[in-house]
Design brief:
Elements lengths: L3 H23 L4 H8 L3 H13 L3 E2 L6 E2 L3 H28 L3
Antiparallel strand pairs: 1-2
Helix pairs in contact: 1-3, 2-3
Length: 101
């Protein structure tokens, strides 16, 4: 349906953030320990690590993933980006409520 893709992206974002949180708190940390800590399968952890690395939010090391160079910037901009998303969802809800049926 129309909102299914948005929901999938939000679920992915939640997963990536959980992995990032664990890397920041417990890094350096490897895939197996991350899978254990997050209760996620290793293939999902591996995918999240790849995405986070592409965004420079984590970096690999021989001891496991560690915090990346862009974490501070990401965290400082996070609230504004979430606020923007909330504003969009409010507008979508208003449009839906204006549809007579």
């Amino acid at each position: 349906m129309l909102l299914d893709q948005v929901n999938k992206e939000l679920e992915l974002t939640e997963r990536h953030l959980l992995v990032l949180k664990k890397v920041i708190e417990k890094g350096p940390i490897g895939i197996l320990r991350l899978a254990e800590e997050t209760e996620m399968p290793t293939h999902k952890v591996r995918y999240s690590l790849r995405i986070l690395e592409q965004e420079n939010l984590i970096k690999p090391s021989i001891h496991g993933a560690t915090e990346g160079d862009m974490v501070e910037k990401f965290l400082s901009e996070f609230e504004q980006k979430i606020k923007s998303i909330q504003e969009k969802t409010t507008r979508i809800r208003e449009i839906r409520n204006s549809i007579e049926h």
